[in-house]
């Protein structure tokens, strides 16, 4: 074992004490010794340090003063001082040890910057997720509404296609050929129905704006521009429909019967509309009245030019179809003639486009001549005029009509549907094998019933004593069996 330097000089070394005790008597500090011996003896606590020449006076471990053991009281005082210093040092160490713990707890209770940043990112991600969820729900609701609207439009388009087929294609099929419905026509029907709804809404807005006292000129101007843009959109979709089927647009099948009565090249006459709306625009200034009159005259001249062009087109088409070409001869001249006629018909699209352009130009010129309030009144009167035409058509369609076959001529002459009744009577007689009963005992109605009364069991007559009843085929009612 290697000994450190100063090992033998250490007075507290037990090995040295044991070696010294084996040769001589116990050391002096073990016996009663004088304090001077303790004072003279050096005290060294430096482990692993070289000890140079005589050390300085031994200093205390926790004090800058050397040990002084002069007496018992001095020894006790130094011991108490040492204990006090030791206790203070221990308290200082405890305080130093507690301060890092407290700071660690504070750091734990307060999240560091990275944790705060992560929390902020999580909150932002949650906010974006809620926004995406809200947008998704709104998109679903919008899609549901669009789906419902498309279903209604599809149902309306089917009804309109059926009406169009009944008015056009069914008649063509009766003549031996069919005319398929163009998809562009069906799309135009849907777009036009939307335009009518939009026009009704715009008319309501114009009415409210004109009735309100707080409506400014700027608001009226915006409403007028919106109305003009609606008419421009109508003419645009009409042009697309004319390219698909020009005869459909020219014939006005997309309009009501009352509107078709005033039809001119697929629409209204601008000069006639100006003549109708002029009283609604009063009071007009003298300059405005002159400009409106000039516009009406110009529109009438343009209408005459288009009408003359249409007449010329009809004449050319008739001449082309009546040219010398034998339909039973070689096919080439005949097909060439038909191709020429088809080319002439394509010019009808240009006439429809020019007529719509004249209508739109007339409305725009009126907008420039009139004030915003006058222009709003004019658009309101125009929309109300077309709406009244549509209402008139609905009332005409719902008018009361007499049932077919109800009227009969006097003097035993057969009525209008006598032929049908005779055929039905023959079928009933053939099926029952007996003559028909007298109608006067059953329903007491018209004489045609005597030829169409059938004896059968009617479920609606169960409460009667006898379930056998007669049914009047012309009135569609059941009557009990006549008493004998």
TrEMBL record:
Compartment(s) of residence: Nucleus
Boundaries of every DOG1 domain copy: 185-399
Annotated spans, Disordered: 70-131
Primary location class: nucleus
Biased segments, Polar residues type: 74-84
Alphabetic keyword roster: Coiled coil, DNA-binding, Nucleus, Transcription, Transcription regulation
Family (UniProt): Belongs to the bZIP family.
Protein name: Transcription factor TGAL6
């Amino acid at each position: 074992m290697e000994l450190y330097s100063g090992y033998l000089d250490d007075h507290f070394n037990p090995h040295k004490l044991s070696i010294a005790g084996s040769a001589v008597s116990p050391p002096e500090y073990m016996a009663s010794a004088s304090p001077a011996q303790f004072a003279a003896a050096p005290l060294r606590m430096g482990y692993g340090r070289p000890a140079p020449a005589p050390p300085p006076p031994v200093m205390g471990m926790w004090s800058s003063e050397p040990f002084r053991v002069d007496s018992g009281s001095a020894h006790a005082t130094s011991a108490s001082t040492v204990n006090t210093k030791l206790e203070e040092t221990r308290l200082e160490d405890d305080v130093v040890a507690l301060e890092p713990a407290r700071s660690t707890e504070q750091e734990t209770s307060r999240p560091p910057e990275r944790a705060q940043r992560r929390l902020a990112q999580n909150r932002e991600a949650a906010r974006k997720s809620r926004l995406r969820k809200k947008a998704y729900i709104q998109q679903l609701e919008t899609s549901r509404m669009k789906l419902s609207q498309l279903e209604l439009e599809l149902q309306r388009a089917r009804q309109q296609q059926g009406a169009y087929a009944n008015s056009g294609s069914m008649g063509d099929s009766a003549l031996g050929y069919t005319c398929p419905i163009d998809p562009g026509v069906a799309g135009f029907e849907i777009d036009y129905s939307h335009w009518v709804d939009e026009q009704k809404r715009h008319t309501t807005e114009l009415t409210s704006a004109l009735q309100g006292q707080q409506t400014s000129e700027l608001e009226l101007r915006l409403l007028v521009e919106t109305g003009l843009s609606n008419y421009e959109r109508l003419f645009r979709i009409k042009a697309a429909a004319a390219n698909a089927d020009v005869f459909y647009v020219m014939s006005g099948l997309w309009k009501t019967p009352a509107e078709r009565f005033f039809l001119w090249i697929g629409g209204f006459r601008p000069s006639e509309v100006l003549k109708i709306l002029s009283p609604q625009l009063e009071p007009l200034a003298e300059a405005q009245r002159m400009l409106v009159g000039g516009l009406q005259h110009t529109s009438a001249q343009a209408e005459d030019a288009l009408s003359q062009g249409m007449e010329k087109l009809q004449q050319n088409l008739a001449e082309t179809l009546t040219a010398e070409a034998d339909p039973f001869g070689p096919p080439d001249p005949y097909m060439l003639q038909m191709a020429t006629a088809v080319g002439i018909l394509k010019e009808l699209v240009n006439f429809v486009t020019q007529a719509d352009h004249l209508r739109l130009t007339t409305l725009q010129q009126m907008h420039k001549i009139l004030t915003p309030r006058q222009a709003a009144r004019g658009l309101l009167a125009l929309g109300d005029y077309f709406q009244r035409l549509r209402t008139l058509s609905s009332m005409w369609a719902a008018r009361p009509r007499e049932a077919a076959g109800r009227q009969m001529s006097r003097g035993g002459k057969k009525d209008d549907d006598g032929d049908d009744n005779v055929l039905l009577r023959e079928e009933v007689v053939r099926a029952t094998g007996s003559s028909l009963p007298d109608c006067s005992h059953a329903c007491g109605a018209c004489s045609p019933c005597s030829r169409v009364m059938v004896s059968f069991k009617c479920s609606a007559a169960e409460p009667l004593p006898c379930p056998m009843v007669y049914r009047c085929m012309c009135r569609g009612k059941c009557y009990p069996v006549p008493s004998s």
